[in-house]
Amino acid sequence: MLGGLAAGLYILGGRVARKTVSVFPYALVVYAVATVALIPICLAFDAPLSGLRTEDYLIILLMAVVAGLLGHTLYNWSLAHIRAAVASVFLLGEPIGSSLLAYAIPWIHQEPSLFTLGGGAVILLGIYLTARRVTHR
């Protein structure tokens, strides 16, 4: 519940902020706040911050570049151009991209289950129907 509330506030707040702040300063502040918030959480839960395998560092780098810099920055850019409700529906596609990456990266190669594939199809249909409805108004 708290995660959903935080996500809703983030989306609505981003929509308001992006009306007056360009995407790069906005993203810089968002990513800086996330970093400052996550470090104490990692320390509190005794999560290792160093000494990981090379493959693990590559996964972290991929997540930072693909999901963070490309995905979330493009998402934050879109908040100035489309309704927050529509943008939030597009966020539902994030697990699909994660599943594809988890399958495609050789040292992970996690095959999606039939439930994952079926759920992904339903999500993609919902995204398509939302996008179609918005563009046909």
Give an overview in words.
The chain is globular. Helix 1 (2-17) crosses helix 4. It has one domain (2-135). The protein is built from 6 helices and no strands. It has helices at 2-17, 23-44, 54-78, 84-90, 94-104, 114-135. The mean pLDDT is 87.
| Beta-strand segment tally | 0
Order of helices and strands: HHHHHH
* Proportion of strand residues: under 5%
Q: Termini separation (Å)? A: 32 Å
**Which consecutive residue ranges, at least 5 long each, have pLDDT under 50?**
none
Give the integer mean of the pLDDT values: 87
How many domains is the backbone divided into? 1
Helical residues, percent: over 70%
Count of helical regions? 6
Shape: globular
Biggest sheet: strands, sense, closure? none
- Round the Cα radius of gyration to an integer and report it: 17 Å
Give the class from helix and strand content and strand pairing.
mainly alpha
